[in-house]
């Protein structure tokens, strides 16, 4: 896989919550560390997203906001 995004986190699909239009995908990228994404139901089906499968969370953003307390 070649991709222009600089932030790609490899992990395992921990949960899939399909709705009528969108699907919530939870990817565990490290023990106790999860990334959650909402994708279309069609995309989830086309990618074969299922619990236990390997997947990548690819982050492409023009802005990343950092905050502290």
TrEMBL record:
Signal peptide: none annotated. GO terms for biological process: molybdate ion transport. Keywords: Molybdenum. Residues 2-68 form the Mop domain. The keyword Cytoplasm does not apply. SUPFAM superfamilies: MOP-like. This is Transporter.
């Amino acid at each position: 896989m070649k991709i222009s995004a600089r932030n790609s986190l490899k992990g395992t699909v921990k949960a899939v919550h399909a709705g009528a239009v969108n699907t919530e995908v939870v990817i565990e990228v490290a023990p106790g560390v999860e990334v959650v994404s909402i994708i279309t139901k069609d995309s989830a089906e086309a990618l074969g997203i299922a619990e236990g499968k390997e997947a990548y969370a690819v982050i492409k953003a023009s802005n990343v906001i950092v905050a502290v307390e």
